[in-house]
């Protein structure tokens, strides 16, 4: 299927009680996708709009999970950028050509 072509980072948060989309679809996406930065969180007790019409503390917890994942993704991308920059610098110093 198409899931094995997903390389874009993603965070799937799904509820087993969702009546709009099947939780198993998120599980299949997570398992099949070769994306290097991915996360799946299965929650209980929510319907499709997990962050909508919820008490403030539940909404805060929902968005805290999202922001935590984004922070981790940013850190991983920053580390990758430093690695590429270091490799480019080393290539220039040694006189080698390098494509990134």
Topology:
Layout lengths: L9 E6 L7 H10 L5 E6 L12 H39 L6
Parallel strand pairs: 1-2
Task: Considering the chains and any ligands shown, give keywords for the structure.
single chain, 100 residues, alpha+beta, two-stranded parallel sheet, 2 strands
Strand segment count:
2
Helix-strand sequence: EHEH
Strand adjacency order, main sheet: 1-2
Distance between the termini: 29 Å
Shape: elongated
Rg measurement, Å: 19 Å
Query: What's the story with the biggest beta sheet?
Result: 2 strands, parallel
Poorly predicted tracts of residues: none
Name the structural class. Answer: alpha+beta
Helix count, per DSSP? 2
Strand portion: 5-15%
Helix content: 40-55%
- Average pLDDT, rounded to a whole number, is 82
What would your notes on this structure say?
With 100 residues, the protein is an alpha+beta fold. The chain is built from two helices and two strands. The protein has helices spanning 23-32, 56-94, and strands at 10-15, 38-43. It has a two-stranded parallel ribbon. It is elongated. The relative contact order is 0.15. The mean pLDDT is 82.
